[in-house]
Amino acid sequence: MQRVSGQRRVIRLAIAGGGVLVVLAAFWLVAFVAVGMLGLRDPTEQEFTVTLRNDTSRTVVLKQCDVRCDTFHEIDQLTPGRTVEVNVSDQDVTNSWVVASTSDQILGCLALRFPRRQSGVVVNASTMTGPPC
Known about the structure:
The protein is 28% helix and 32% strand.
C-alpha cells in the first residue's frame, strides 16, 4: 500500500511539474506574440547606417551630439570629398551632428531624423543649418 501511495505522489508531482512547464510555455508564447503584434524590437535593431559626406571645399569636423549637444559621442574629421558611415535611429528621433572647422568654429548642424529604415542615404555637410544645434 505504501508503494502505491509513493507512486501516486510521484505521478502527482510529475503532473504538477508538467503543468508548471505548460504555464511557462504559454506565458512565453503569449509574450512572443504580443511583442510581434506591438512591433517591438530589440533596441540594437532600431538603427541603420547612413553616409555623411564632406562636399565642401574645406576640411570639416563632424561631432555627434549628446542630448544637449555639449558633449559628443563620435568625432570624425573629413577632408573634402571624404565620407564616413554612421548609425542613426529609425524611430523618428533626431540625431544631431555639429559641423565644425578644424579650429573648432561651429559652422552649422546636421539634424538627422528618419521615421523608418532607408538604404543608400547620403547626407552632405553643405546641407547643414545654422547653429544652435
